[in-house]
Design a protein that fits this description.
The chain is mostly helical and about 500 residues long. Helix content is about 75%, strand content about 0%. It has a two-stranded antiparallel sheet. It starts with about 20 loop residues before the first helix and ends with a strand. The relative contact order is 0.13.
Length: about 500
């Protein structure tokens, strides 16, 4: 019998032997999903090369970077529901195959328009792939093992998103086989094909629930609302902010409101909505969504501006610009480690208030470092203190933010709430790319790159202050790590047994 024909053991069935290849499944999930997340930021350093090769302007670059996150975020919740209906293994394989194929299309794109279209397709494939990983791990691990798996899975994925520009810079700078920026996408081919072969062989089948109806109307409303928001933000600066840009943004707000109403009506009619309506009625959760969007919009946007400043303003090569992101990445890792290891548990919600204050301090240091900048002798060391401190503040928030927002929802709403948070994080990053890219390029056209960076720092400061205000509305204690992934513990009345329940 083929390994793939073996059904996964029930994680809650204490009499069933654990699946022997389960740790190989973890490895495949990590590899595939890091590949997915890397592509959100790996092209940040490709701007000059795309301009030389395909004639990409500022708007084209924003679409190449932000378009991926847009379709990824807009499709994540739908991707999770498709996995529930058709089986997570099947959707994982389909998503991985589509992601690998779309990476090849990106690599051979002949024009900037084609590259943008393929990036949108790649993000859609990622939305089908990304939600399946955690579900497959829940299907194949249980008890203390599942807790250990999530302790590995989360930080590794977080690191994958941070090192994107560093890896992208290395590949472009190396110009392997004369491929230039195209190697950024081609690297996905051997990784994707290898992961696909292993997953098809070793991930066991488990049937989905074919009685579950997928809410395509809700999915269409989400996609339309997201597109109506990001389109004018990307094009507005280039076109001089005509009336249609403002009308699109207003229509986007209406679209999200209609989505919320449609979800409630779908649930009231006894059908399955994309999002459990109860989570949208919880104030702490809904304001938390705003906090997620503000924080990650500012973080991703500022990371992009840092890269643009180094490459376009200071004429750094792609490799040097990638390494220029390293102090930010190291600072983020340190801040995340401190926050996740003990700080969030000891001081609770205050960690979400200290984090943005540290970020603001880092931005202030960076502001004055830029003021004293000598273009003739500039090196990355001139701005390391500011970027590293800002990174530490960001890491403190990243490690704890989801746990405090999820503490506001009920146990049976965890699965739906987690999917929504991840989707808003991705869309927030896309919006951040559009806003910060527009702010930077508006001033950079004059050749004053330092002022352009200053303007971006001001926008980030405004977003951080707004985020700081929102944190006071979140629960004071976070939800434990294992429960954030849909695992809750119930202790028996006599205290002798703990049962694991999976909130799907």
């Amino acid at each position: 019998m083929e390994v793939s024909d073996v059904r996964a053991p029930s994680p809650t069935d204490g009499t069933t032997e654990p699946y022997r290849w389960r740790w190989l499944i973890l490895a495949v999930m990590i590899v595939a999903e890091i590949m997915d997340l890397l592509d959100a930021s790996i092209v940040n350093v490709a701007g000059p090369d795309l301009e030389k090769s395909l004639g990409a302007g500022s708007v084209g670059l924003q679409w190449v970077i932000g378009g991926y996150s847009l379709t990824l975020g807009a499709g994540l919740v739908l991707g999770g529901r498709l996995g529930d209906r058709y089986g997570r293994r099947r959707m994982f394989l389909i998503g991985l195959a589509a992601f690998t194929a779309s990476s090849l299309l990106c690599a051979i794109a002949p024009t900037i328009g084609a590259l943008i279209a393929f990036r949108l397709l790649q993000g859609t494939a990622g939305a089908m792939l990304l939600p399946q990983g955690l579900g497959l791990l829940r299907e194949n691990f249980s008890g203390p093992e599942l807790t250990r798996v999530f302790a590995i899975f989360g930080p590794v994925l977080g690191l994958g998103g941070i090192v994107g520009p560093v890896l992208g810079g290395f590949l472009i700078e190396g110009d392997f086989f004369g491929l230039g920026w195209r190697s950024v996408f081609l690297i996905n081919l051997p990784i994707g094909i290898g992961a696909l072969i292993v997953a098809a062989k070793f991930v066991p089948k488990k049937a989905g629930d074919r009685t579950l109806r997928v809410d395509l109307t809700g999915a269409a409303l989400v996609v339309a609302a997201c597109a109506l928001l990001v389109l004018p933000l990307n094009q507005g600066q280039e076109d001089g902010w005509p009336l249609w840009t403002w009308l699109c943004m207003a229509a986007s707000v209406i679209g999200f409101a209609l989505f919320a109403v449609q979800q409630r009506r779908t649930a009231a009619a006894g059908r399955e909505p994309l999002v459990t309506p109860g989570v949208l009625r919880k104030r702490a959760f809904t304001v938390g969504l705003g906090g997620i969007a503000l924080f990650f919009g500012g973080l991703i946007g500022t990371q992009l501006v840092l890269t643009l400043f180094l490459q376009i303003g200071q004429r750094f090569t792609a490799g040097d610009a990638g390494l220029g992101n390293l102090p930010l990445a190291v600072g983020t890792a340190i801040g995340g480690a401190v926050s996740g290891a003990f700080l969030a548990d000891r001081i609770g919600r205050k960690v979400l208030q200290i984090g943005p204050l540290v970020q603001l301090a880092g931005a202030a240091v960076l502001w004055f470092e830029l003021d004293g900048l000598d273009p003739a002798s500039f090196s990355i060391w001139d701005i390391v203190p500011g970027t590293a401190v800002a990174g530490m503040g960001a890491g403190m928030v990243i490690a704890a933010l989801f746990s405090f927002i999820l503490a506001a929802v009920d146990d049976d709403e965890i699965g739906s709430a987690s999917g929504v948070l991840t989707a808003v994080q991705a869309v927030g990053g896309s919006v951040g790319v559009a806003i910060f890219g527009s702010v930077f390029f508006a001033q950079a056209k004059t050749g004053d790159f330092t002022t352009a960076f200053h303007h971006a720092l001001l926008v980030q400061a405004c977003l951080l202050v707004a985020f700081l205000a929102i944190t006071f509305l979140l629960p004071k204690k976070g939800r434990p790590e294992e429960e954030q992934h849909g695992v809750t513990s119930e202790t028996a009345a006599d205290g002798s047994e703990t049962k694991q329940h999976l909130a799907v």
